[in-house]
Specification:
single chain, alpha+beta, Glutamine Phosphoribosylpyrophosphate, subunit 1, domain 1, five-stranded antiparallel sheet, four-stranded antiparallel sheet, 11 strands, globular
Length: about 170
């Protein structure tokens, strides 16, 4: 299980994830954030979902202009995700994703390919996401962006059995 948090702060975006992977009774430590030629992303759900995002990105290999990330994502990435989803439905439909592209945060629901750029400047996915969102909300204007992401992941680790206290944070 997972908690992934993304927060936009001016020209920077912070994305963080706990490091616990749960498979049945087995709990392991692993990196849940990936980078691929200008794209940073994390996935909650099947590990195959991250491979699908990476393969889709390799097919596009172009970046949107900064002021139209939403339109570009809909026109370029969603058709590729749909194709990949049609070929491997189970893996993709069980995933939610956070992608950071051109300093924009994009939330993607793999089940119905719904995507959004959060207007509040932050989002979270995974088993600890509600706790992480509460933490991000309550620390707005109080802590630095990096500290807010740290506190959100710590809170998720404290209150969700599916998350660990060990986490990683990237500044994009």
């Amino acid at each position: 299980m997972t908690c992934i948090v993304a927060l936009k702060d001016g020209d920077d975006v912070y994305i963080g994830a706990d490091r616990q992977i749960t498979h049945g009774w087995l709990k392991k430590d692993a990196c849940k954030l990936k980078t691929a030629e200008g794209l940073v992303f994390g996935s909650a759900g099947s590990a195959r979902g991250m491979q699908i995002i990476e393969e889709s990105w390799k097919k596009v290999r172009s970046s949107p202009c900064e002021n139209d990330v939403y339109g570009w994502f809909q026109d370029c990435m969603i058709p590729l995700f749909k194709e990949m989803k049609d070929n491997d439905y189970n893996s993709f439909s069980k995933c939610n994703f956070i992608l950071v592209l051109n300093k924009s945060i994009i939330f993607l629901d793999g089940a119905d390919l719904f995507f959004d750029i959060p207007s509040i400047g932050y989002t979270s996915i995974g088993s600890g996401s509600e706790v992480a969102l509460g933490s991000l909300y309550s620390t707005d204007g109080v802590l630095s962006a990096q500290k807010r992401v740290e506190k959100a992941l710590e809170a998720a680790g404290n209150f969700s059995v599916g998350c660990s206290q060990d986490y990683e944070i990237l500044k994009v």
